[in-house]
């Protein structure tokens, strides 16, 4: 994955502990608040979080931290 | 994050604190005959009239603790409810919040605490168990390789698996994981491919064989040229497919979604109406609690996630919930003969001598000499046998003229050799006075493909080749019948006689022979007109139209083909025939669990509604039953993560251990 200043980086996180569709809104809100995040999509059934973000302004670690703040453990994946 | 923070943010802190407060409240009431239960303030809540559950008209210390318990457990619920309302969703959180707040307003502190506490603990349990239904995917992700040993400038170098470059040589040592998809260029080794194909028996790999990232070496030493890295590996494609499949909604799910969308608001209206008509606040609040559609909403997704995940661990990729539902209804399976029922590698089986002056070897020699320059697939078994018996043709092959549908005409050292069927002999005016036609007939009726050999206008013998029936083929057909498939149909381009011999040996119900590729589609369509739900099994190349027409297209041995993994409705990663009945069985079990779950959820709703109106179901009982039904539904789905008796997956004990497992993430499939 290459990040440049123009194209957003697409990062997929896999999370643990999704129990109800309401977690989705919670995480989308927490991650969406970060500056530099362009879009965030949480897939409930497979417990994935897909984020398009500007890697210069917000790193993958920041995303993981934001998800942790919402109360879920997430790990970035290569694919 | 430190541990305390983690715990506070975790699922269990709220129910634990709330539970402790409830216990303290009861203790205060009981201790020293209630002496410890100090009065804090006079009554401040509204009177619920006949339904008042509060013993005294004062606010006691026990009430304080009980109220605190309700606040601790209910705070998060209320926050969520408000958040949902802001995005115009009326959800379960709102119902519980209204019910709990209502209970507090009329002084039912115990009910408020019980409802919120049960809801919170139910949620924590759901989170833990739901993770288990996703365990199969977690395991797949866990087998992804981390590091690779590459050869760069003659040096062995350890790099992250994602940083191997295409075409580089990677070393796979005994016990190591294969880091990339690639081709063996040197060495031999036994590779355990369970993570990809679900087969537990290691596969011997030699030069030019394909290996897959995420499989593990069980011995030997391989040099592998990387052809796929990171997201471009078969494993990554499998993970993606499984995730997409789990997120895809089944038809039944769409119905349930519609149902729960009006169900919750409808219950709120009902509660309001019931409250207004009966002037009974408690009844109205209780109705609110049981209006939560929890088990309904979750009943199908958990089953699908568990079922599709289980299948993936066994080397079966199913495209989504909808395909599971269709697969469970399959009544007919059409298989392409070659590569499914037979090996697809014809062998020479018979040499019949017709010319008394010649012997077996000489007939073979003539046949081999004639076929030496032929491209036809039937030439190979003849040449292989000739080579094995030391009579392989030498020098430059003569000219070969293929006669489509009949055979070949070859020039061997100036002599004209014909190899083919009786029509070929007719065409070249060869007079059949040595019963060549009869000999070929009897070979054909035994399921072989006969070829008459004629030299300079005289038939000298007949050679026959046959495709070997795969060992598992009869077992596969029998198991398909066991799985509830009425008809197993064979499609083949071979002649009827050949097809019937194979059909007899494997127990096939119906044979369609002498088909051109485009005819296969017509057979599938015809079976559909007869009312069958049909699955078509093929390699995806010649049968693409038929695969697309069938209700379910199944690709065999898909691991080596990116296209098959991406497109087949069901992709069987390995080349194990028994995976086909297994996948139908799994689909049936998953759909059964879906149905059971919906039934459980609906019965819960009906019983609770009846219980409320008949009396006896209080708010806390309602919440208890409701949360219990959700957990039952999840537990039921978890049965799918275990294998049934027909599975060919490997035992859990040999699987890759998952790194840094949280207790909630423990995988649960039984060995």
UniProtKB/TrEMBL annotation, chain B:
<dbReference type="InterPro" id="IPR023214">
    <property type="entry name" value="HAD_sf"/>
</dbReference>
<dbReference type="InterPro" id="IPR008250">
    <property type="entry name" value="ATPase_P-typ_transduc_dom_A_sf"/>
</dbReference>
<dbReference type="InterPro" id="IPR027256">
    <property type="entry name" value="P-typ_ATPase_IB"/>
</dbReference>
<dbReference type="InterPro" id="IPR044492">
    <property type="entry name" value="P_typ_ATPase_HD_dom"/>
</dbReference>
<dbReference type="InterPro" id="IPR023298">
    <property type="entry name" value="ATPase_P-typ_TM_dom_sf"/>
</dbReference>
<feature type="transmembrane region" description="Helical">
    <location>
        <begin position="52"/>
        <end position="78"/>
    </location>
</feature>
<feature type="transmembrane region" description="Helical">
    <location>
        <begin position="623"/>
        <end position="641"/>
    </location>
</feature>
<dbReference type="Pfam" id="PF00702">
    <property type="entry name" value="Hydrolase"/>
</dbReference>
<dbReference type="InterPro" id="IPR001757">
    <property type="entry name" value="P_typ_ATPase"/>
</dbReference>
<dbReference type="GO" id="GO:0015086">
    <property type="term" value="F:cadmium ion transmembrane transporter activity"/>
</dbReference>
<dbReference type="GO" id="GO:0005886">
    <property type="term" value="C:plasma membrane"/>
</dbReference>
<keyword id="KW-0472">Membrane</keyword>
<keyword id="KW-0067">ATP-binding</keyword>
<keyword id="KW-1278">Translocase</keyword>
<dbReference type="Pfam" id="PF00122">
    <property type="entry name" value="E1-E2_ATPase"/>
</dbReference>
<keyword id="KW-0812">Transmembrane</keyword>
<feature type="transmembrane region" description="Helical">
    <location>
        <begin position="283"/>
        <end position="309"/>
    </location>
</feature>
<dbReference type="GO" id="GO:0019829">
    <property type="term" value="F:ATPase-coupled monoatomic cation transmembrane transporter activity"/>
</dbReference>
<dbReference type="InterPro" id="IPR023299">
    <property type="entry name" value="ATPase_P-typ_cyto_dom_N"/>
</dbReference>
<feature type="region of interest" description="Disordered">
    <location>
        <begin position="645"/>
        <end position="671"/>
    </location>
</feature>
<keyword id="KW-0479">Metal-binding</keyword>
<feature type="transmembrane region" description="Helical">
    <location>
        <begin position="112"/>
        <end position="130"/>
    </location>
</feature>
<protein>
    <submittedName>
        <fullName>Cd2+/Zn2+-exporting ATPase</fullName>
    </submittedName>
</protein>
<feature type="transmembrane region" description="Helical">
    <location>
        <begin position="259"/>
        <end position="277"/>
    </location>
</feature>
<keyword id="KW-0547">Nucleotide-binding</keyword>
<dbReference type="GO" id="GO:0016887">
    <property type="term" value="F:ATP hydrolysis activity"/>
</dbReference>
<dbReference type="GO" id="GO:0005524">
    <property type="term" value="F:ATP binding"/>
</dbReference>
<feature type="domain" description="P-type ATPase A">
    <location>
        <begin position="144"/>
        <end position="243"/>
    </location>
</feature>
<dbReference type="InterPro" id="IPR059000">
    <property type="entry name" value="ATPase_P-type_domA"/>
</dbReference>
<feature type="transmembrane region" description="Helical">
    <location>
        <begin position="85"/>
        <end position="106"/>
    </location>
</feature>
<dbReference type="InterPro" id="IPR018303">
    <property type="entry name" value="ATPase_P-typ_P_site"/>
</dbReference>
<feature type="transmembrane region" description="Helical">
    <location>
        <begin position="598"/>
        <end position="617"/>
    </location>
</feature>
<keyword id="KW-1133">Transmembrane helix</keyword>
<dbReference type="InterPro" id="IPR036412">
    <property type="entry name" value="HAD-like_sf"/>
</dbReference>
<dbReference type="GO" id="GO:0046872">
    <property type="term" value="F:metal ion binding"/>
</dbReference>
<dbReference type="InterPro" id="IPR051014">
    <property type="entry name" value="Cation_Transport_ATPase_IB"/>
</dbReference>
<comment type="similarity">
    <text>Belongs to the cation transport ATPase (P-type) (TC 3.A.3) family. Type IB subfamily.</text>
</comment>
<keyword id="KW-1003">Cell membrane</keyword>
<feature type="transmembrane region" description="Helical">
    <location>
        <begin position="12"/>
        <end position="32"/>
    </location>
</feature>
């Amino acid at each position: 994955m290459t990040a440049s200043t123009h194209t957003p980086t697409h990062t997929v996180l896999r999370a643990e502990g999704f129990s109800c569709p309401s977690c989705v809104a919670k995480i989308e809100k927490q991650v969406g608040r970060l500056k530099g995040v362009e879009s965030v999509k949480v897939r409930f059934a497979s417990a994935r979080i897909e984020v398009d973000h500007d890697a210069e302004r917000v790193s993958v670690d920041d995303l993981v931290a934001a998800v942790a703040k919402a109360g879920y453990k997430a790990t970035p994946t290569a694919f | 994050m430190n541990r305390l923070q983690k715990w506070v943010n975790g699922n269990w802190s709220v129910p634990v604190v709330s539970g402790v407060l409830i216990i303290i409240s009861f203790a205060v009431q009981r201790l020293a005959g209630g002496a410890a239960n100090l009065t804090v303030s006079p009554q401040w809540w509204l009177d619920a009239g006949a339904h008042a559950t509060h013993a005294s008209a004062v606010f006691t210390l026990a009430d304080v603790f009980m109220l605190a318990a309700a606040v601790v457990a209910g705070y998060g619920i209320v926050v969520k409810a408000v958040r949902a309302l802001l995005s115009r969703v009326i959800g379960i959180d709102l119902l519980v919040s209204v019910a709990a707040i209502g209970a507090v307003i009329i002084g039912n502190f115990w009910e408020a605490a019980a409802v919120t506490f049960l809801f919170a603990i139910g949620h924590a349990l759901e989170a833990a168990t739901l993770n288990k239904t996703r365990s199969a995917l977690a395991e797949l992700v866990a087998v992804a390789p981390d590091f690779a040993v590459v050869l760069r400038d003659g040096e062995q170098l350890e790099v992250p698996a994602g940083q191997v470059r295409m075409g580089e040589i990677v070393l796979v040592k005994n016990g190591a994981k294969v880091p990339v998809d690639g081709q063996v260029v040197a060495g031999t080794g036994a590779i355990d491919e369970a993570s990809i194909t679900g087969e537990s028996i290691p596969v011997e790999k030699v030069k030019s064989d394909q290996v897959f990232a995420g499989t593990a070496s069980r011995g030997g030493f391989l040099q592998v040229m990387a052809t796929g890295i990171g997201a471009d590996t078969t494993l990554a494609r499998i993970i993606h497919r499984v995730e997409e499949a789990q997120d895809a909604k089944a038809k039944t799910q769409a119905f349930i979604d519609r149902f729960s969308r009006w169900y919750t608001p409808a219950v709120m209206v009902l509660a309001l109406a019931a409250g207004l008509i009966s002037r009974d606040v408690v009844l109205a609040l209780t109705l609110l609690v049981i209006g939560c559609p929890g088990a309904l909403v979750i009943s199908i997704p958990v089953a699908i996630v568990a079922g599709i995940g289980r299948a993936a661990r066994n080397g079966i990729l199913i495209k989504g919930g909808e395909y599971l539902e269709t697969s469970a209804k399959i009544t007919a399976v059409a298989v392409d003969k070659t590569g499914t029922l037979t090996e697809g590698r014809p062998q020479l089986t018979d040499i019949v001598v017709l010319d008394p002056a010649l012997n077996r070897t000489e007939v073979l020699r003539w046949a081999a000499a004639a076929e030496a320059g032929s491209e036809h697939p039937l030439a190979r078994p003849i040449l292989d046998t000739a080579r094995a018996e030391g009579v392989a043709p030498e020098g430059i092959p003569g000219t070969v003229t293929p006669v489509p549908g009949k055979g070949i005409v070859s020039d061997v050292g100036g002599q004209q050799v014909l190899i083919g069927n009786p029509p070929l002999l007719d065409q070249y005016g060869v007079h059949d006075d040595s019963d060549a036609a009869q000999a070929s007939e009897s070979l054909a009726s035994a399921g072989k493909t006969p070829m008459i050999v004629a030299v300079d206008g005289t038939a000298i013998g007949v050679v026959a080749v046959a495709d070997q029936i795969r060992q598992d083929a009869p077992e596969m057909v029998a198991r398909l019948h066991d799985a509830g498939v009425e008809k197993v149909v064979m499609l083949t381009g071979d002649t009827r006689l050949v097809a019937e011999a194979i059909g007899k040996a494997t127990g096939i119900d119906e044979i369609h022979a002498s088909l051109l590729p485009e005819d296969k589609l017509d057979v599938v369509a015809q079976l559909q007109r007869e009312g069958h739900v049909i699955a078509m099994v093929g390699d995806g190349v010649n049968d693409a139209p038929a695969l697309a027409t069938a209700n379910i297209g199944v690709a065999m041995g898909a691991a080596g083909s990116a296209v098959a993994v991406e497109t087949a409705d069901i992709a069987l990663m390995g080349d194990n025939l028994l995976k086909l009945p297994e996948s139908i069985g799994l689909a049936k079990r998953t759909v059964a669990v879906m149905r059971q779950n919906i039934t459980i959820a609906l019965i819960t709703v009906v019983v609770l509604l009846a219980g409320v109106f008949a009396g006896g179901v209080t708010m806390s009982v309602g919440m208890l039953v409701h949360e219990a039904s959700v957990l039952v539904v999840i537990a039921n789905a978890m049965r799918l993560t275990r294998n049934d008796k027909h599975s060919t997956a490997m035992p859990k004990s040999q699987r890759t251990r998952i790194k840094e497992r949280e207790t909630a993430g423990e995988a649960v499939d039984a060995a």
